[in-house]
Write a structure and sequence with these properties.
heterodimer; A: 86 residues; Alpha-Beta Plaits; B: 463 residues; alpha/beta; FAD/NAD(P)-binding domain; 3 domains; 9 helices; 29% strand; globular; binds flavin-adenine dinucleotide; binds iron/sulfur cluster; 3Fe-4S (chain A); transport (chain A); 3Fe4S_ferredoxin (chain A)
Chain lengths: 86, 463
């Protein structure tokens, strides 16, 4: 499951940290830390957390059982040195 | 005819996106969501599908996430062709072709450029290549740095106390590592938030055991005979022994591949109109080339029509959505990119957030809480108006600040504090460094001149 939280929207109310504590945790009083790549067994908890977020800041892909992530084919075989050749 | 073209484009046109990261992905999703059924190609030089960068200096270093797994969730099916692991090397504006470094060419009817920025490397190449010297921008950078820090380090030196550098220093302290931070200005975050708030950030560093050195520059990195970094030389002639150095000197815009293309692209980014259409080098707007994200700079009506470059996550998302919308709609349906600048950072357990353009402000007022408690709301004023807000552990106030900015609310604020505190009663100079001096701190750059002083009635975009 892939997760991203729009931390501009997030108000730090911690509902997600309460509902899926292995994925979302508060760091200090209101900063949210989360794992963007949650384990499959967290699915139900993450679904509850995303639904409970009062500002709808949590986006999840792969929330539904059997919903495959669209495959991405990497075309170029030869790896390029990212900082050169620009 | 124009309408016919847009209809045709939406049905069977070819759209190419260069830069397959946050802005590129969100634009691709928006194109499909708004009914584009033609062919969609994403070109990215990193051999990875789009991943999120903010966790790399936070959750990843703190052991909460893997540097290999910050892939961005997709909001919908894309049905796109991905060309990953190969950079775009040139652009033929008249032939409407992107040239790839492997010699291939990709033709487009409309192009979106979202090539972002890269970390500014340590300027002395031999020193930058020493083992133990890192930058932090990409997944590969993050993997390398995280592995090294996990293996243990005697001392980490962070060069540059902007947001990224401060976050790295904070995470290292949490990992129990000794950290020295070297900053040219008088305090961390001054380029982004000014000296008053910078002083609060400096206290956070010191309280958390960071050896903070301000008003110094790094003059040299010294290696041992094995090519590993051994020490860092500072302008005050002190020498700090270190086995890890994190260079956090801001970023460079990825526009070199466009040189000679005729597009208005350079070290300050790619200029566009408020509708995300790129300018050519003559300052004439193009019809088929759009820009979004960290690489773009565009005029903002709320901030004197200055061209803003915003290295902000939220800007990349909003600008990508607007660019994508404008790419496939008729002229009368175009929207301006009028996103309210906003960002967050968390360091030393404190949630720092901002809206508006702090570096535009010359005065600051604390309207709630107190800097001594590291829990406050500050607003920045410019020419009698509120232009920005900042909160430390007070995110709930940000919306209020945003409304004040949108309404052009007066500054100084009438009733300064709700819970009256001495420092809240008066506006003080925000204390930004001289903009003509080089800094690496700010992630917002005012890079233009206002064509008009008229204020437009501000209507936020539909995000
Ligand atoms: C460590 C870190 C922490 C951050 N934390 C925050 C935060 O807390 N809050 C916040 O608001 N923002 C934060 N940001 C900034 C945020 O990540 C960026 O604003 C965002 O990534 C911008 O997205 P983008 O798609 O415009 O550009 P980028 O993410 O830079 O993507 C551009 C892509 O284009 C590729 N590319 C470049 N040249 C070429 C070429 N010629 N051909 C093909 N591909 C090319 C690049 O390799 C890259 O993959 C952080 C950034 C970093 C690095
Ligand atoms: S529930 Fe939403 S607002 Fe609350 S901490 Fe989680 S993401 Fe933030």
């Amino acid at each position: 499951m892939r997760i991203v939280v729009d931390l501009n929207k997030c108000q730090g109310y911690a509902q997600c940290a309460f509902l899926a504590p292995d994925v979302f945790t508060m760091h200090g009083e209101e900063a949210l830390l989360y794992n963007p790549h949650a384990a499959e067994e967290e699915r139900a908890a993450v679904a509850r957390a995303a639904a409970a977020c009062p500002v709808q800041a949590i986006t999840v892909e792969g929330l539904h059982e059997g919903a495959p992530v669209e495959p991405v084919q990497v075309f170029s075989g030869a790896p390029w040195e990212p900082r050169d050749g620009r | 005819m124009a309408a016919d073209y847009v209809d045709w484009l939406r049905r069977e046109g070819r759209i190419v996106i260069v830069g397959a990261s946050l802005a590129g992905l969100r634009a691709a999703e928006t194109l499909r969501a708004e009914g584009f059924t033609g062919s969609l190609t994403l070109i990215g030089d990193e051999p990875y599908e789009p991943y999120d960068r903010p966790p790399l200096s936070k959750a990843v270093l703190l052991g909460k996430a893997s540097p290999r797994h910050t892939e961005l969730p997709r909001r919908r099916h894309l049905d796109a062709e991905w060309r990953l692991g190969v950079p775009a090397a040139g652009l033929d504006l008249t032939g409407k072709r992107v040239l790839l470094a492997d010699g291939e060419e990709v033709e487009y009817d409309r192009l979106l450029i979202a090539t972002g920025v890269r970390a500014r490397p340590w300027p002395v190449a031999e020193e930058a290549e020493l083992d133990g010297v890192f930058v932090l921008r990409t997944r590969d950078d993050s993997i390398a740095l995280t592995e090294r820090l996990r293996a243990g380090a005697k001392r980490v030196v962070v060069i540059g106390a902007g947001f990224a550098g401060s976050e790295v220093a904070s995470a290292c302290r949490e990992m129990g590592l000794e950290v020295t931070v070297a900053e040219r200005a008088g305090a961390p975050l001054v380029g982004a938030l000014g000296g008053v708030i910078g002083a609060v950030a400096a206290d956070l560093h010191l309280e958390n055991g960071v050896d903070l050195r301000t008003h110094v520059t790094v003059t040299a990195l010294e290696g041992d005979p094995m090519g590993r970094v051994r020490s860092v030389h500072l302008s005050d002639e002190s020498v700090v022994e270190a086995d890890v150095v994190v260079v956090s000197l801001g970023s460079l815009r990825n526009t070199e591949w466009l040189s000679g293309s005729g597009l208005g692209a350079g070290p300050r980014g790619i200029a566009s109109d408020a509708g995300c259409r790129a300018f050519d080098f003559r300052g004439i707007v193009t019809d088929d080339v759009f820009v979004a994200g960290d690489v773009a700079r565009s005029p903002h009506a709320l901030f004197g029509y200055q061209f803003l470059s915003l290295e902000h996550w939220g800007n990349a998302v909003a600008q990508a959505e607007t660019a994508a919308h404008n790419m496939i709609c008729s002229a009368s349906d175009r929207r301006p990119h009028m996103w309210m600048p906003a960002f967050w950072s968390s360091q030393f357990g404190v949630n720092i957030k901002s809206v508006g353009v702090p570096p535009m402000g010359d005065e600051l007022m604390i309207i709630q809480g107190s800097t001594a408690e590291r829990r406050f709301v500050g607003v920045y004023g410019y020419k009698g108006r509120i232009v920005a807000g900042v909160t430390f552990d007070n995110a709930r106030w940000l919306e209020y600040c945003q409304r004040q900015i949108e309404q052009g609310a007066p500054f100084p604020v009438e009733y300064p504090t709700v819970d009256r505190r001495p420092e809240g009663r008066k506006a003080v100079p925000a204390d930004f460094p001289d903009p003509s001096l080089p800094t690496h701190g700010p992630t917002v750059t005012l890079s233009g001149y206002s064509p008009a002083d008229r204020r437009l009635v501000f209507t936020p975009g539909h995000h």
